[in-house]
Write a structure and sequence with these properties.
Layout (H helix, E strand, L loop, with lengths): L7 H5 L5 E8 L3 E8 L2 E8 L10 H5 L7 H9 L2 H24 L7 E5 L2 E5 L19 H20 L2 E2 L8 E4 L2 E4 L6 E2 L6 H17 L10 H10 L16 H36 L1
Antiparallel strand pairs: 1-2, 2-3, 3-5, 4-5, 6-9, 7-8
Helix pairs in contact: 3-4, 5-6, 6-7
Bound molecules: adenosine-5'-triphosphate and magnesium ion.
Length: 287
Protein backbone atom coordinates (compact mmCIF):
# COMPACT_ATOMS: atom_id res chain seq x y z
CA UNK A 1 0.00 0.00 0.00
CA UNK A 2 0.97 3.65 -0.27
CA UNK A 3 3.01 4.66 2.77
CA UNK A 4 1.06 6.99 5.09
CA UNK A 5 2.86 10.33 5.57
CA UNK A 6 3.55 9.82 9.26
CA UNK A 7 5.36 6.54 8.52
CA UNK A 8 7.64 7.97 5.83
CA UNK A 9 10.42 9.08 8.24
CA UNK A 10 10.59 5.56 9.70
CA UNK A 11 10.79 4.08 6.22
CA UNK A 12 13.57 6.51 5.30
CA UNK A 13 15.49 5.66 8.49
CA UNK A 14 15.14 1.95 7.78
CA UNK A 15 13.14 1.29 10.96
CA UNK A 16 10.45 -0.28 8.79
CA UNK A 17 10.75 -1.73 5.29
CA UNK A 18 7.16 -1.77 4.11
CA UNK A 19 3.66 -0.85 5.25
CA UNK A 20 1.49 -3.90 4.62
CA UNK A 21 -2.00 -2.72 5.59
CA UNK A 22 -4.02 -0.58 7.98
CA UNK A 23 -5.31 -2.52 10.98
CA UNK A 24 -7.51 -0.12 12.89
CA UNK A 25 -8.18 3.57 13.22
CA UNK A 26 -9.34 4.56 16.70
CA UNK A 27 -9.98 7.79 18.57
CA UNK A 28 -6.37 8.25 19.50
CA UNK A 29 -4.29 6.40 16.97
CA UNK A 30 -4.13 4.62 13.62
CA UNK A 31 -2.60 1.18 13.74
CA UNK A 32 -0.78 -0.43 10.78
CA UNK A 33 0.75 -3.81 10.03
CA UNK A 34 4.32 -3.24 8.85
CA UNK A 35 7.27 -5.36 7.75
CA UNK A 36 10.67 -4.93 9.39
CA UNK A 37 13.15 -7.21 7.63
CA UNK A 38 11.42 -10.59 7.68
CA UNK A 39 9.31 -9.78 10.72
CA UNK A 40 5.74 -8.54 10.67
CA UNK A 41 5.17 -5.85 13.31
CA UNK A 42 2.62 -3.33 14.45
CA UNK A 43 3.00 0.47 14.13
CA UNK A 44 0.74 2.72 16.22
CA UNK A 45 0.62 6.29 14.89
CA UNK A 46 -0.66 8.72 17.54
CA UNK A 47 -3.08 11.39 16.45
CA UNK A 48 -2.24 14.94 17.37
CA UNK A 49 -3.67 16.30 20.60
CA UNK A 50 -6.33 18.44 18.87
CA UNK A 51 -7.69 15.42 17.03
CA UNK A 52 -7.74 13.26 20.13
CA UNK A 53 -10.53 13.46 22.64
CA UNK A 54 -8.24 15.32 25.03
CA UNK A 55 -10.83 16.48 27.54
CA UNK A 56 -9.87 14.18 30.35
CA UNK A 57 -6.10 14.31 29.81
CA UNK A 58 -5.53 16.40 32.95
CA UNK A 59 -7.15 13.70 35.07
CA UNK A 60 -4.65 11.16 33.83
CA UNK A 61 -1.59 13.37 33.78
CA UNK A 62 -1.83 14.52 37.37
CA UNK A 63 1.30 13.49 39.22
CA UNK A 64 3.18 12.53 36.08
CA UNK A 65 6.81 13.33 36.59
CA UNK A 66 8.82 15.46 34.17
CA UNK A 67 12.49 15.35 34.97
CA UNK A 68 13.64 18.58 33.31
CA UNK A 69 12.17 21.68 34.96
CA UNK A 70 12.39 23.97 31.89
CA UNK A 71 10.29 21.39 30.13
CA UNK A 72 7.83 21.23 33.05
CA UNK A 73 7.44 25.03 33.07
CA UNK A 74 6.90 25.14 29.30
CA UNK A 75 4.26 22.41 29.56
CA UNK A 76 2.43 24.34 32.26
CA UNK A 77 2.52 27.56 30.24
CA UNK A 78 1.31 25.80 27.11
CA UNK A 79 3.82 27.45 24.73
CA UNK A 80 4.46 25.78 21.37
CA UNK A 81 7.61 24.24 22.82
CA UNK A 82 5.50 23.21 25.80
CA UNK A 83 2.79 21.66 23.63
CA UNK A 84 5.38 19.65 21.70
CA UNK A 85 6.85 18.48 24.99
CA UNK A 86 3.40 17.49 26.25
CA UNK A 87 2.89 15.49 23.05
CA UNK A 88 6.22 13.75 23.44
CA UNK A 89 5.58 12.92 27.09
CA UNK A 90 2.19 11.45 26.17
CA UNK A 91 3.65 9.35 23.37
CA UNK A 92 6.59 8.15 25.40
CA UNK A 93 4.33 7.21 28.30
CA UNK A 94 3.07 4.17 26.36
CA UNK A 95 6.44 2.84 25.28
CA UNK A 96 7.81 3.44 28.81
CA UNK A 97 4.87 1.56 30.31
CA UNK A 98 5.33 -1.33 27.86
CA UNK A 99 9.02 -1.75 28.80
CA UNK A 100 8.22 -1.50 32.52
CA UNK A 101 5.39 -4.01 32.38
CA UNK A 102 7.23 -6.52 30.21
CA UNK A 103 10.04 -6.46 32.81
CA UNK A 104 7.46 -7.07 35.53
CA UNK A 105 6.09 -10.22 33.85
CA UNK A 106 2.89 -8.69 32.47
CA UNK A 107 1.99 -9.93 28.98
CA UNK A 108 2.08 -6.91 26.67
CA UNK A 109 3.21 -6.61 23.02
CA UNK A 110 7.01 -6.50 22.97
CA UNK A 111 8.01 -2.86 22.36
CA UNK A 112 10.68 -1.85 19.80
CA UNK A 113 10.72 1.87 20.56
CA UNK A 114 8.81 5.07 19.79
CA UNK A 115 10.00 7.27 16.92
CA UNK A 116 8.43 10.54 15.68
CA UNK A 117 5.15 9.73 17.36
CA UNK A 118 5.04 6.14 16.09
CA UNK A 119 5.19 3.19 18.46
CA UNK A 120 6.71 0.05 16.98
CA UNK A 121 5.73 -3.19 18.71
CA UNK A 122 5.09 -6.88 18.31
CA UNK A 123 1.95 -7.73 16.34
CA UNK A 124 -0.07 -10.06 18.58
CA UNK A 125 -1.29 -12.98 16.45
CA UNK A 126 -2.61 -16.50 16.79
CA UNK A 127 -0.58 -19.51 15.70
CA UNK A 128 -1.75 -19.09 12.08
CA UNK A 129 -0.42 -15.54 12.01
CA UNK A 130 -3.87 -13.92 12.04
CA UNK A 131 -4.19 -10.82 14.23
CA UNK A 132 -5.41 -11.80 17.69
CA UNK A 133 -9.02 -10.87 18.49
CA UNK A 134 -10.00 -8.44 21.21
CA UNK A 135 -11.37 -10.03 24.39
CA UNK A 136 -14.72 -8.43 23.51
CA UNK A 137 -15.01 -10.84 20.56
CA UNK A 138 -14.12 -13.96 22.55
CA UNK A 139 -16.53 -16.32 24.35
CA UNK A 140 -15.28 -18.99 26.74
CA UNK A 141 -16.16 -21.68 29.27
CA UNK A 142 -16.69 -20.82 32.95
CA UNK A 143 -13.43 -22.56 33.83
CA UNK A 144 -11.47 -20.59 31.22
CA UNK A 145 -13.11 -17.35 32.41
CA UNK A 146 -12.09 -18.02 36.04
CA UNK A 147 -8.53 -18.82 34.98
CA UNK A 148 -8.13 -15.78 32.70
CA UNK A 149 -9.75 -13.47 35.23
CA UNK A 150 -7.28 -14.59 37.87
CA UNK A 151 -4.41 -14.05 35.44
CA UNK A 152 -5.60 -10.54 34.56
CA UNK A 153 -5.90 -9.73 38.28
CA UNK A 154 -2.30 -10.93 38.66
CA UNK A 155 -1.28 -8.59 35.80
CA UNK A 156 -3.11 -5.67 37.42
CA UNK A 157 -1.28 -6.45 40.68
CA UNK A 158 2.08 -6.55 38.88
CA UNK A 159 1.33 -3.20 37.22
CA UNK A 160 0.53 -1.73 40.62
CA UNK A 161 3.79 -3.16 41.99
CA UNK A 162 5.51 -1.19 39.19
CA UNK A 163 3.61 1.92 40.36
CA UNK A 164 1.16 2.00 37.44
CA UNK A 165 -2.60 1.81 36.97
CA UNK A 166 -3.72 1.13 33.36
CA UNK A 167 -6.59 3.62 33.54
CA UNK A 168 -8.47 2.35 30.45
CA UNK A 169 -8.55 -1.39 30.97
CA UNK A 170 -11.53 -3.16 29.43
CA UNK A 171 -12.41 -6.01 27.07
CA UNK A 172 -11.52 -3.63 24.20
CA UNK A 173 -7.93 -3.16 25.36
CA UNK A 174 -7.10 -6.81 25.95
CA UNK A 175 -6.18 -9.10 23.04
CA UNK A 176 -6.42 -12.89 23.32
CA UNK A 177 -3.90 -15.13 21.60
CA UNK A 178 -3.30 -18.86 21.97
CA UNK A 179 -1.52 -18.31 25.29
CA UNK A 180 -4.12 -16.05 26.87
CA UNK A 181 -4.80 -12.36 27.52
CA UNK A 182 -2.38 -9.62 26.36
CA UNK A 183 -2.77 -6.08 27.74
CA UNK A 184 -2.59 -3.19 25.22
CA UNK A 185 -3.25 0.55 24.88
CA UNK A 186 -1.31 2.20 27.70
CA UNK A 187 -0.60 5.87 26.83
CA UNK A 188 -2.84 7.01 29.69
CA UNK A 189 -1.33 4.75 32.39
CA UNK A 190 -1.29 6.70 35.65
CA UNK A 191 1.24 7.00 38.44
CA UNK A 192 -0.39 5.03 41.25
CA UNK A 193 1.31 6.88 44.11
CA UNK A 194 1.14 10.45 42.76
CA UNK A 195 -2.25 10.59 41.05
CA UNK A 196 -5.27 11.20 43.30
CA UNK A 197 -7.54 9.43 40.81
CA UNK A 198 -5.46 6.25 40.80
CA UNK A 199 -7.60 4.40 43.31
CA UNK A 200 -10.87 5.00 41.46
CA UNK A 201 -9.21 4.15 38.13
CA UNK A 202 -7.92 0.87 39.57
CA UNK A 203 -11.42 0.13 40.82
CA UNK A 204 -12.87 0.85 37.38
CA UNK A 205 -10.23 -1.23 35.55
CA UNK A 206 -10.80 -4.22 37.83
CA UNK A 207 -14.60 -3.90 37.67
CA UNK A 208 -14.58 -3.75 33.85
CA UNK A 209 -12.56 -6.97 33.65
CA UNK A 210 -14.58 -8.74 36.35
CA UNK A 211 -17.87 -7.79 34.71
CA UNK A 212 -16.70 -9.17 31.37
CA UNK A 213 -15.48 -12.52 32.69
CA UNK A 214 -18.53 -12.81 34.97
CA UNK A 215 -20.71 -13.26 31.88
CA UNK A 216 -19.24 -16.75 31.73
CA UNK A 217 -18.69 -17.34 35.48
CA UNK A 218 -21.17 -15.30 37.50
CA UNK A 219 -19.57 -15.92 40.90
CA UNK A 220 -16.65 -13.66 39.88
CA UNK A 221 -18.92 -10.70 40.68
CA UNK A 222 -18.36 -11.52 44.37
CA UNK A 223 -14.62 -10.83 44.19
CA UNK A 224 -13.06 -7.63 45.57
CA UNK A 225 -9.57 -7.54 44.06
CA UNK A 226 -9.28 -3.76 43.69
CA UNK A 227 -9.96 -3.08 47.38
CA UNK A 228 -7.60 -5.87 48.41
CA UNK A 229 -4.75 -4.65 46.19
CA UNK A 230 -5.16 -1.02 47.12
CA UNK A 231 -5.16 -1.78 50.84
CA UNK A 232 -1.81 -3.59 50.52
CA UNK A 233 -0.41 -0.94 48.14
CA UNK A 234 -1.31 1.90 50.49
CA UNK A 235 0.32 0.13 53.43
CA UNK A 236 3.47 -0.36 51.33
CA UNK A 237 2.96 -4.12 51.58
CA UNK A 238 2.11 -5.04 48.00
CA UNK A 239 4.84 -7.19 46.41
CA UNK A 240 5.06 -9.59 43.48
CA UNK A 241 4.73 -12.39 46.05
CA UNK A 242 1.51 -11.05 47.60
CA UNK A 243 -1.11 -13.76 47.18
CA UNK A 244 -4.50 -12.27 46.49
CA UNK A 245 -7.75 -13.93 47.54
CA UNK A 246 -10.29 -11.56 46.02
CA UNK A 247 -11.75 -11.16 49.51
CA UNK A 248 -11.32 -8.23 51.87
CA UNK A 249 -12.34 -7.70 55.43
CA UNK A 250 -14.29 -4.50 54.95
CA UNK A 251 -13.85 -1.89 57.66
CA UNK A 252 -17.60 -2.03 58.15
CA UNK A 253 -17.34 -5.72 58.78
CA UNK A 254 -14.66 -5.21 61.43
CA UNK A 255 -16.91 -2.73 63.23
CA UNK A 256 -19.74 -5.29 63.10
CA UNK A 257 -17.54 -7.95 64.66
CA UNK A 258 -16.83 -5.62 67.58
CA UNK A 259 -20.48 -4.87 68.21
CA UNK A 260 -21.43 -8.55 67.92
CA UNK A 261 -18.72 -9.41 70.46
CA UNK A 262 -19.98 -6.71 72.83
CA UNK A 263 -23.50 -8.07 72.51
CA UNK A 264 -22.37 -11.63 73.24
CA UNK A 265 -20.50 -10.46 76.30
CA UNK A 266 -23.57 -8.61 77.56
CA UNK A 267 -25.69 -11.75 77.10
CA UNK A 268 -23.12 -13.81 79.03
CA UNK A 269 -23.12 -11.27 81.89
CA UNK A 270 -26.96 -11.22 82.00
CA UNK A 271 -27.04 -15.01 82.03
CA UNK A 272 -24.59 -15.12 84.91
CA UNK A 273 -26.72 -12.67 86.90
CA UNK A 274 -29.85 -14.69 86.15
CA UNK A 275 -28.19 -17.85 87.42
CA UNK A 276 -27.00 -16.11 90.54
CA UNK A 277 -30.53 -14.87 91.13
CA UNK A 278 -31.97 -18.37 90.61
CA UNK A 279 -29.44 -19.82 93.00
CA UNK A 280 -30.25 -17.19 95.64
CA UNK A 281 -34.01 -17.82 95.23
CA UNK A 282 -33.46 -21.60 95.61
CA UNK A 283 -31.47 -21.05 98.78
CA UNK A 284 -34.27 -18.81 100.13
CA UNK A 285 -36.86 -21.56 99.42
CA UNK A 286 -34.82 -24.13 101.38
CA UNK A 287 -35.15 -22.06 104.54
N1 LIG B 1 0.26 -5.01 19.22
C1 LIG B 1 -0.90 -5.24 18.61
N2 LIG B 1 -1.14 -6.41 17.99
C2 LIG B 1 -2.32 -6.63 17.38
N3 LIG B 1 -3.32 -5.74 17.31
C3 LIG B 1 -3.14 -4.56 17.90
C4 LIG B 1 -1.93 -4.24 18.59
N4 LIG B 1 -2.04 -2.99 19.07
C5 LIG B 1 -3.25 -2.55 18.72
N5 LIG B 1 -3.93 -3.48 18.00
C6 LIG B 1 -5.29 -3.32 17.43
O1 LIG B 1 -5.54 -1.96 17.18
C7 LIG B 1 -6.63 -1.49 18.00
C8 LIG B 1 -6.34 -0.07 18.49
O2 LIG B 1 -5.19 -0.07 19.32
P1 LIG B 1 -5.15 0.75 20.69
O3 LIG B 1 -6.26 0.31 21.56
O4 LIG B 1 -3.78 0.64 21.23
O5 LIG B 1 -5.36 2.22 20.14
P2 LIG B 1 -6.44 3.36 20.44
O6 LIG B 1 -6.49 4.26 19.29
O7 LIG B 1 -6.11 3.94 21.74
O8 LIG B 1 -7.77 2.59 20.52
P3 LIG B 1 -9.17 3.04 21.11
O9 LIG B 1 -9.23 4.51 21.17
O10 LIG B 1 -10.12 2.40 20.12
O11 LIG B 1 -9.19 2.38 22.45
C9 LIG B 1 -6.78 -2.52 19.10
O12 LIG B 1 -8.10 -2.61 19.58
C10 LIG B 1 -6.35 -3.80 18.42
O13 LIG B 1 -7.42 -4.37 17.72
MG1 LIG C 1 -7.84 0.90 22.57
Amino acid sequence: MKTPKRLLPLLEDGLIDEVLRPLMSGKEASVYVVRCGDEVRCAKVYKEAQKRGFKKAALYQEGRKVRNSRRARAMEKGSRFGRNQTEETWQNAEVDALYKLAAQGVRVPEPYGCFDGVLLMELVTDDEGDVAPRLNDVAMSAEQAREDHLLVMEYVKRMLCAGLVHGDLSEFNVLVDDYGPVIIDLPQAVDAAANNNARSMLERDVNNMTRYYAQFAEELLETRYAAEMWKLFEAGELTLDSELTGLVEEDLHTADVDSVMAEIQQILRDEEKRRERLKADGEDDEH
